[in-house]
Amino acid sequence: MDAWTQALKILVLFVWLRGPKLCESPHTLPVMWIMPLTNYPGRGNLTAEVLPAVQLALHHLKKHPSPFKNYEIQFHLEDSQCDNAKGLRAFFDAICFGPKHLMIFGGVCPSVTSIIAESLGGWNLVQLSFAATTPVLADKKKYPNFFRTVPSDNAVNPAVIKFLNHFNWSRVGTLTQDVQRFSEVRNDLTNELEKADIQIADTESFSNDPCINVKKLKDNDVRIIIGQFDETLASKVFCCAYNLNMFGSKYQWIIPGWYQGNWWEQANSTNCTTKKLLTAMEGYISVDFLPLSTKQVKGISQRTPQEYEREYNKRRLQKGVESSKFHGYAYDGIWVIANTLKRVMEILKQKEKFNRYRNFTADDKEVGKIVLDIMNETNFFGVTGQVMFRNGERMGTIKFTQFQEGKEVKVGEYNAIADVLELINNTIRFQGVEPPKDRTFVRLQRRHINLPLYSILSAITILGMFMASAFLFFNIKNRNQKLIKMSSPYMNNLIILGGMLSYASIFLFGLDGSFVSDKVFETLCTVRTWILTVGYTTAFGAMFAKTWRVHAIFKNVKMKKKIIKDQKLLIIVGGMLLIDLCILICWQIVDPLKRTVEEYNLEADPQGRDIAIRPFLEHCENTHMTIWLGIVYAYKGLLMLFGCFLAWETRNVSIPALNDSKYIGMSVYNVGIMCIIGAAVSFLTRDQPNVQFCIVALVIIFCSTITLCLVFVPKLITLRTNPDAATQNRRFQFTQNQKKEDSKTSTSVTSVNQANTSRLDGLQTDNHRLRMRITELDKELEEVTMQLQDTPEKTPYIKQNHYQDINNILSIRNYTDGKEGDKSILKNHHEQKPQAQWGSVDPSRTNKGPLEDINSPEHIQRRLSLQLPILHHAYLPSIGGVDASCASPSVSPSASPRHRHVPPSYRVMVSGL
């Protein structure tokens, strides 16, 4: 250490400027050089490393053409030892006992340099440092006389901002070691980021273990991380990054560039192997000031930076010292001092020349002000680039290097004076196909209905509409056929219209934001709801109205004529639609449907790109959606229950053309089951539009198709195979819900819809035929009477076939007058005994006299001659002989025997009056 001190002090010549006038030429310019002669932590013996550059600068000054050859700089070296007290004492000793220094050169240790720089104003001295990079010294209010040829640590921040803007990174995070040096850089960087409108997603500081803070950065989705920490903690940071998988194509680390070579091997104090560290470090960007300019331009020393570097390396190799990145700034610093002092001397000479008394003397304050002004005006090209100061700060060049395959490669540089970033082509290697994103780039992706699915279901819907159109054509074409006419063709048309409206709603349900705009989609929310609601009510309302008419006719127990025209049914359907419209209008006015967007959790990109997919789905909703849906469902549910009730009540009406109760029941069952299943599955698949649309469409298609087919296919088949089926079965039976204990016989149906004139014609024909049959029986009855009167002795009993004719007359009477049937049937005189065969003689009676046996042939002959004409005229009005309008042909003569209600055939003995 003493040898180095002695060697350095040999270079210094003490010259004391005495007297009021300047010394004679060559002028010696004393400068204090304050440096630590010991090793500086993290930088080695900086004085020894930069000494060859200082010697080379002094050598070049001597050989430089005028005017520099007239002046000689002489340094007085002081050892600060990087200690505040020792450094301050050395500074005071040099001031008190040394020559009168014009400037101070050097200053490395931040604490010692800041103390001395703060007191420079009292001594009228200016300090120029080539190695003090601490940002604290950038405060010109506190350190107005401090300059440095090396950029400060804050000088990299504008370069970082420029680098971020180049790759369009607008969201970053910071990770800072909790020491003053890095905290100051972080604070300045924060201000620069805010000015550049770059978002700081997260700011983390740590002291020893950075893993928790690194994880927070990951949790906050920070992809671009700007770090400020030394080599020791850098290895811990990258070890944590490896364990958290925060490296590779999705992340970009930006760290200081002043680390020593192979620092990861020397400073590795973690559990991670060197291979893991290198894996996590791959691709990081380091930022630091540029030691030497890369431009092939000769500067103030008449040498290019490359030529100077060769000479410097030659000198340091001769001395056996390591190279320092500050040597170029020390070299340029000598030229700054020489240029400043030269100009100061020229100014003083000019003032002395123009002084009246030629005895000009400059005091320390005036000289200090001149030096300060000239320093601020410095501007020349040195080996480190353009040398100029802005508020005492060097506007230097910042370099960018990237860690590639175990070594750092220069990829660009930033010129602070021109504010230009120059990147070397094809040198930056990102681990992905493109630069990392500054965040997990979220791409909104609409969950929409696939076009093939929409096309398939639309094609099926179109087929359903064609089918409905075919039914409509069939219904209109055959509207005058008895089968169709009795089934209310107008109501059938409404059923078809409701089905087609339901079909049409499918097209609207499949249109989302991928097909239409947001405004149109919001309109479709209302339109498709209205169409489906109106279509459902139209179809099932018409069907239930038809059933109600059948119910109203056949619940008429008194058998009065009742005519219900289609106009009344239309009014019923219109009332149902009016209720729908009231609900829908109130819904639209009070709480209209609007387009809402539901976003889902992030998903990985299926193509492996560095983006995340956030699915979103459009819905038609409002504030009180549940209430409105409850109202609609309740109304529709009551309507379906009412239809089920009507279908059940009319289940025994057996005219197919008039009664659709069986098909209505099947339709309601299918629709109810499908709607319940469809609503439940649709709710569960709310976030899957394809599945939801498929279910809704299939439910509508199935319900509409089944309903139309159940209503029209049986009519079509019947009309093609048996056109007269509408008039073949005319027995109607209406079963009352409450039956009495004695199980009385049900009332026969006597009146059907009088609007169907064809049915009345058929009834009149049947009535006429019955009257003709009664007339024939009357003739036979008269013949029997005549035979009895002519031959009383031959036949004591009436022939069996004639009594059978009498039974037929009584049976016809029972069919034609149900109200008096019980009164007209003659009682059987053999209810308590087994009946004897007609035509046989009871032996017990043969021995009795004529007066004792009232059934003797004589008595029978006399009674028949009197009773048969009376019976004939008594039953004639009931069977149509008097008034045909009283006839009640409730049983069709063409009906099969098993469908007739025929009372048991009794062998009736005619009793006496």
UniProtKB/TrEMBL annotation:
SUPFAM superfamilies: Periplasmic binding protein-like I. Residues 1-23 form the signal peptide. InterPro entries: ANF_lig-bd_rcpt, GBR2_CC, GPCR3_GABA-B, GPCR_3, GPCR_3_C, GPCR_3_CS, GPCR_3_GABA_rcpt_B2, Peripla_BP_I. PROSITE patterns: G_PROTEIN_RECEP_F3_3, G_PROTEIN_RECEP_F3_4. GO terms for biological process: gamma-aminobutyric acid signaling pathway. It comes from the Eukaryota. One of its GO terms (molecular function) is G protein-coupled GABA receptor activity. Residues 453-735 form the G-protein coupled receptors family 3 profile domain. The keyword Transmembrane applies. The chain crosses the membrane at residues 453-474, 494-515, 527-548, 569-590, 625-648, 668-684, 690-713. It is found in: Postsynaptic cell membrane. It is a multi-pass membrane protein. Residues 745-759, 834-847 have a biased composition (Polar residues). GO terms for cellular component: G protein-coupled receptor heterodimeric complex; postsynaptic membrane. Residues 735-762, 830-855 are annotated as: Disordered. Keywords: Cell membrane, Coiled coil, Disulfide bond, G-protein coupled receptor, Glycoprotein, Membrane, Phosphoprotein, Postsynaptic cell membrane, Receptor, Signal, Synapse, Transducer, Transmembrane, Transmembrane helix. Belongs to the G-protein coupled receptor 3 family. GABA-B receptor subfamily. This is Gamma-aminobutyric acid (GABA) B receptor, 2.
